[in-house]
């Protein structure tokens, strides 16, 4: 392929993904051929969750459009596997790394190798902690995600609008709510939980919301590896010990769709029926099965974080760094990784409930009406 043709493809793809720098991908010294920008290693945590598959596919295709070769690896939530995958990428001569970690604190050594080899590292969605090797962080506004998860619950209970605005004449409650958080080795889990508690605490203080299990600390409500079955068994335990007779759970704060599905299974197993005092349940990621669960009335809402936009942002950061440019960031305060505050770009999440599935997920091309079964 002629260089001019490649440049026009690069420019066109840059426009498609909204890249700021049209020279993106033209950082290699080669004169033609696919992947002329060099090899980029993309490390993803697991294929067991659909979202990471979408993320990986989007990052790979966008990097390829920008003229790079891509080594995309999934570690199935096995930390040593992720370490060795990244080591391999370095050995193979990767010019940059995009990393969504399993445990953000476990990559310090391998990332030091990347740093020693002058390989820039972009943290993808999850912060890389305890390292100076990370150049930039592409993610969503994780505190806002947590607030939106709580607003999903308060909206379903009739207490607020979806944006948190109090509803006049809202019921006084008390509503029985249980809390779930994500994996403590994922920095995001703390942002989600803090954001959610920022919304829920005033209702708890006012007695509108009560937590019958008494479990309100993140350590008590966390879910290792965001695992649905772990969440299911905790929910089963809580239902057995705290809820009997007329005492029903009215709302459940869930930080992720896979956890919500575990919670739904626990409720079904304990005799709860959709439509008959079924609790309000939040989520995150707009995974297809959970969007279907929203249509079916099992889950009240989810948080939509468009993986295509996150991929575009990470690709934009990577190509800018490789071109010796400074990528655009919009947060230089909140993401201290234990070594320094990592310059970050936070995208804006949104809440999906039954009424806006069409607008949020179908009109944007994220899922088709057929896939959802609309
Ligand atoms: C978090 C991510 C969430 C969700 C969760 C479980 O790090 O921000 O969107 O995917 O992991 O995979």
Automatic annotation (TrEMBL):
<feature type="signal peptide">
    <location>
        <begin position="1"/>
        <end position="20"/>
    </location>
</feature>
<dbReference type="GO" id="GO:0030288">
    <property type="term" value="C:outer membrane-bounded periplasmic space"/>
</dbReference>
<dbReference type="InterPro" id="IPR025997">
    <property type="entry name" value="SBP_2_dom"/>
</dbReference>
<dbReference type="Pfam" id="PF13407">
    <property type="entry name" value="Peripla_BP_4"/>
</dbReference>
<keyword id="KW-0732">Signal</keyword>
<keyword id="KW-0813">Transport</keyword>
<dbReference type="InterPro" id="IPR049784">
    <property type="entry name" value="ChvE-like"/>
</dbReference>
<dbReference type="GO" id="GO:0030246">
    <property type="term" value="F:carbohydrate binding"/>
</dbReference>
<dbReference type="InterPro" id="IPR050555">
    <property type="entry name" value="Bact_Solute-Bind_Prot2"/>
</dbReference>
<protein>
    <submittedName>
        <fullName>Putative multiple sugar transport system substrate-binding protein</fullName>
    </submittedName>
</protein>
<feature type="domain" description="Periplasmic binding protein">
    <location>
        <begin position="40"/>
        <end position="326"/>
    </location>
</feature>
<dbReference type="InterPro" id="IPR028082">
    <property type="entry name" value="Peripla_BP_I"/>
</dbReference>
<keyword id="KW-0762">Sugar transport</keyword>
């Amino acid at each position: 392929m002629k260089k001019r043709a490649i440049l026009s493809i690069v420019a066109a793809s840059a426009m498609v993904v909204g890249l700021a720098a049209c020279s993106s991908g033209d950082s290699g010294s080669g004169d033609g051929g696919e992947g002329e920008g060099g090899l980029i290693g993309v490390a993803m945590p697991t294929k067991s969750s659909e979202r990471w598959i979408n993320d990986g596919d989007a990052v790979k295709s966008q990097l390829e459009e920008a003229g790079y070769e891509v080594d995309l690896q999934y570690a199935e939530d096995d930390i040593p596997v992720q370490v060795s995958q990244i080591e391999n990428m370095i050995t193979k001569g990767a010019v940059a790394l995009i990393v969504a970690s399993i445990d953000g604190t476990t990559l310090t050594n391998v990332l030091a190798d990347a740093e020693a080899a002058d390989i820039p590292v972009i943290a993808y969605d999850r912060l890389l902690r305890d390292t100076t090797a990370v150049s930039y962080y592409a993610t969503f506004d994780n505190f806002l995600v947590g607030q939106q998860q709580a607003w999903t619950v308060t909206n379903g209970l009739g207490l607020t609008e979806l944006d948190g605005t109090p509803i006049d004449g809202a019921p006084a409650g008390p509503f029985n709510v249980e809390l779930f958080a994500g994996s403590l080795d994922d920095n995001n889990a703390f942002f989600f939980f803090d954001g959610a508690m920022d919304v829920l605490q005033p209702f708890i203080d006012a007695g509108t919301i009560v937590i019958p299990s008494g479990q309100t600390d993140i350590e008590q409500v966390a879910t290792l590896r965001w695992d649905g079955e772990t969440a299911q068994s905790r929910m089963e335990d809580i239902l057995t010990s705290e809820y009997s007779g007329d005492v029903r759970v009215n709302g459940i704060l869930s930080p992720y769709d896979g956890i919500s599905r575990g919670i739904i299974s626990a409720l079904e197993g304990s005799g709860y029926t959709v439509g008959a005092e079924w609790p309000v349940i939040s989520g995150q990621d707009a995974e297809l099965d959970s969007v279907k669960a929203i249509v079916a009335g099992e889950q009240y809402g989810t948080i939509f974080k468009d993986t295509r936009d996150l991929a575009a942002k990470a690709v934009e950061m990577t190509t800018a760094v490789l071109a010796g440019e400074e990528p655009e960031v919009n947060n230089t305060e909140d993401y201290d990784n234990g070594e320094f505050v990592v310059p970050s770009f936070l995208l804006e999440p949104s809440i999906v409930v039954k009424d806006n599935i069409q607008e949020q997920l179908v009109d944007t091309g994220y899922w088709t009406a057929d896939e959802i079964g609309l």
